[in-house]
Design a protein that fits this description.
6-stranded mixed beta sheet, Methylamine Dehydrogenase, Chain H
Length: 684
């Protein structure tokens, strides 16, 4: 039976929730009376120079409820559940929250409490997706695993044997990932109940089945650091960028319906990775709270409150110049990224935090209790004498150090797994001898360490034999599917190739070079042999993959339509400079600038055009004024050449922490001109 009503309800939900959950933004001229004079000038423009008058017109920013739209959808679905749809006439709503277009819900009622099974038919039987739902009378049943831009057959069977079949159609997600192909070499160890979740570097999370077909998609948050939690939900980076290009304000907990259950705000933000600890808290790869240095900070976040309960600054443990990686010459990173932590692991048996420091070619272990160095795994070349005792001595004829690695994990026996990107294969002090051309290769590798005798041996590797065709200079990762070295899941996520030059030795700084084919290889390797490979390739940046992981679509993480999302923690007080700006001479801000207050921060977006070259832009400032206090916050400006000059896009923010107890008038300084926004921040 084909249900024809789900599109109608979906449209109603969208219209209703757009009204209920529209973001409260304020535009610079929106709330200012602008009576026009005979000469065509506005009263507001004439009076802009009068500071006291302008200040009196300032409009207080209203707090935006970032979850209002989701709450309205929840309420609408709960209301529909009271309407008594039979199973045969169940109401099917595709993508109810607008964030997961290949998911849906079925709304129906049964006379007696009854559970059942959902089967989402695959294009072949082994790719069927199956889940169960609990016994209730009023049902809002999640449907996961619909095909993209297609019609999927869905069978719902109650425990009493009653069954109904629906044909559910989805719209195109409109994302080009290139060509996705799957090759099954051996089914012996492959688990069809799990799908491959792919973290695209361009910011979307999607899942494919064994045939390479997309069965889940969302772009509700970021993708650099996504894991399934013990409760079955997914924790992923939040969407707002504190600092380009991937330093996010925190993390969000979602289910596969795209519903958000909580948002964690973190001083210094989040990047690359996090770990769910045995006590439920999160260890998060972060940046210095003032963002003056990046990827060298770790914080522990209380699961229940979002408070920072432990923090680590790697600058307290080592020098920025020691052991520098040759990858720093080709990554295109600023010197503030001296450490580049791209992975975390927690050793509960020894209370150790492991960090993957790409720009040190090292895995660094830190004692959680006293924040002291425990050991360093990597090539000791270029490190000072004070650090040499922390390094391991290699054993074995086949031993090879790793360089510019990504990801780190601990196997059940204590061995260390990582992805050896293999950049240069020498330290920065030997950069003249870096490997290039056809000699480049990457590896997934497992090491065994002996901390008593300070020795290390290489247990297994994969990828070297595939040479330059499998080379992935950055991102990428490896995890064990069963806690052992025998079953590894590997993502080689950044292969770039030029057919014209017939070369693959490319680096992060080459990512946006035109004409390069981008390829990800995702491999299951069992006992050293390739058993399954997923290849994502094309002339699209979406083909590049940060990491991937395996997970079923139906998990213990129950979709809870009645759950109310919460915001935890805060961004802390944003660093600022004292300003000497003469606000009495501020001009009225032109149209097109938007200011948002979401309860955690004030943020703004806008743009302007200037005759200045892109590399000669005047720094932009957000200026808050309260009495004699004037605080200036740096803005981010992105410039591009236009037909009539340079087009500049501006973004900026400040946390509301530290603004308590005062009213703050909001000014903006861009392109050498000071503007009065006409708005203020007030807690009253």
């Amino acid at each position: 039976m084909k249900n024809k009503r789900y599109r109608e309800l979906a449209a109603i939900l969208v219209m209703m929730t757009m009204a209920a959950g529209s973001v409260t933004t304020v535009t610079a001229q929106e709330n200012t009376e602008t009576a026009t004079t005979e000469e065509g000038e506005t009263d507001a423009a004439v009076e802009a120079a009068d500071a006291s008058d302008t200040k009196s017109q300032a409009t207080a920013l209203e707090v935006t409820d970032r979850f209002a739209q989701q709450t309205a959808i929840d309420e609408a679905l709960l209301q529909e559940a009271q309407n008594g749809y039979s199973l045969e006439e169940a109401l099917i709503v595709v993508n109810p929250y607008g964030t997961s277009p290949l998911s849906a819900v079925a709304v129906f009622a049964t006379e007696e409490a009854c559970g059942g099974t959902v089967t989402v038919k695959g294009k072949s039987a082994e790719n069927d997706v199956t889940g169960t739902f609990e016994a209730e009378k009023d049902h809002i049943v999640p449907i996961y695993g619909l095909y993209n831009n297609d019609t999927t057959e869905v069978v719902i069977t109650l425990d009493d044997g009653t069954s109904a079949t629906f044909e559910v159609t989805t719209e195109d997600i409109n994302v080009d990932y290139g060509t996705i192909t799957a090759e099954m070499k051996s089914e012996a160890s492959y688990d069809y109940t799990n799908l491959t979740f792919v973290c695209s570097t361009m910011g979307s999370l999607y899942a494919v089945d064994a045939a390479g077909d997309i069965r889940f998609y969302t772009n509700v948050g970021g993708s650099l650091g996504v894991h399934q939690l013990e409760n079955g939900h997914i924790l992923m980076p939040a969407s707002y960028v504190l600092k380009p290009s991937y330093y996010k304000e925190g993390m969000i907990e979602i289910d596969l319906m795209g519903k958000i259950y909580g948002e964690y705000m973190i001083p210094g933000g989040q990047h690359h990775d996090f770990v769910e600890m045995p006590n439920g808290n999160f260890l998060v790869a972060s940046d210095s709270p003032d963002l003056s240095s990046v990827e060298d900070y770790v914080v522990e976040i209380d699961r229940q409150t979002g408070d920072v309960v432990w923090e680590l600054d790697m600058k307290d443990l080592m020098g920025t110049e020691d052991g520098q990686s040759a990858s720093m010459d080709t990554d295109g990173s600023e010197e503030s990224d001296w450490f580049h932590n791209n992975g975390l692991a927690y050793d509960a048996d020894n209370d150790l935090l492991l960090l993957s420091a790409r720009h040190k070619d090292a895995i660094v272990a830190v004692n959680m209790e006293d924040k002291s160095l425990a050991w360093i795994l990597g090539d000791p070349t270029g490190w000072g004498e004070d650090y040499q005792s922390y390094f391991f001595n290699p054993e074995g004829e086949d031993f090879e150090w790793f360089y510019a690695q990504h990801n780190v994990s601990i196997l059940d026996n204590g061995d260390i797994a990582l992805f050896d990107n293999g950049t240069a294969k020498v330290k920065r002090v030997d950069a003249d001898n870096r490997v290039s051309g056809d000699d480049v290769y990457s590896r997934a590798v497992v090491y065994h360490i002996d901390t008593e005798n300070m020795t290390v041996s290489q247990v297994t590797e994969y990828g070297k034999e595939r040479g330059a065709d499998w080379y992935a200079d950055w991102i990428s990762g490896v995890v064990s599917l069963d806690g052992t070295q025998d079953h590894l899941w590997i993502t080689a996520g950044s292969h770039l190739h030029s057919d014209e030059e017939n070369r693959s030795d490319y680096y992060p700084k080459d990512m946006f070079v035109q004409g390069l084919t981008k390829t990800t290889h995702i491999d299951q390797v069992d006992n050293g042999e390739l058993s399954f490979e997923l290849t994502i390739s094309g002339d699209t940046y979406n083909a590049l993959t940060f990491r991937s992981f395996r997970m079923p679509l139906y998990t213990e993480g129950k979709y809870d339509v009645a759950a109310v999302p919460e915001v935890y923690g805060s961004l802390g007080e944003t660093s600022y400079e004292e300003s000497d700006a003469d606000v009495s001479s501020a001009e009225a801000l032109p149209d097109g600038w938007n200011f948002v207050l979401d309860g955690s921060k004030i943020s703004l977006t806008g743009s302007y055009q200037t005759e200045a070259a892109a590399d000669e832009l005047t720094p932009g400032k957000l200026i808050l004024v309260s009495g004699d206090s004037k605080r200036a916050y740096n803005l981010t400006q992105s410039a591009a050449a236009g037909d009539n000059g340079t087009n500049v896009t501006v973004k900026g923010w400040t946390s509301v922490d530290g603004l308590e107890g005062q009213d703050w008038d909001i000014y903006l300084e861009v392109d050498g001109t000071l503007y009065n926004s006409g708005y203020k921040y007030s807690q009253s």
